Amino acid sequence: MSHEAALHNHEGHGHDDHGHHEHHDTFLTKYVFSQDHKMIAKQFLITGMVWAVLGGLMSVLFRLQLGYPEASFPWLESILGKWAKGGQITPEAYYALETTH
After folding, report:
1. What are the sequence ranges of the domains in the chain?
2. Would you state the pLDDT for residue 50?
3. C-alpha to C-alpha distances, 91 to 2, 30, 86, nearest whole angstrom
């Protein structure tokens, strides 16, 4: 038997274990620090959708203030705190929402 044929002959081993061990990924290595292009695409898609929703919510807040400039929305103060004193978005917070959006 030639040297090459001996390398490819698996009958002489006598067992099926070739030293392969299964590697179990942790949550961080599988989903956060993945190097798999399919997982990276999913991360990109999910992140884009999250930021689109947050940007949309910011847009709703400052457009609400634009649509009803004299109205007071007490629930805004519970969400934005000092940036919506008296239920109206302060000018500084308005500009911050507009810029972040």
Report:
1. 50-101
2. 97
3. 84, 43, 13
User: Which residues touch 71 (CB under 8 Å, ≥6 apart)?
Assistant: 88
Using left for φ > 0, alpha for ψ between -120 and 50, and beta otherwise, residue 23 falls in: beta
pTM of the model: 0.60
Q: Distance (Å, rounded) from C-alpha 27 to C-alpha 23?
A: 13
User: At residue 11, does pLDDT exceed 60?
Assistant: no
Give the span between the Cα atoms of 25 and 36, in whole angstroms. Answer: 12
80 near 93, Cβ under 8 Å? yes
As separate numbers, helices (DSSP H) first and strands (DSSP E) second, the chain gives: 5, 0
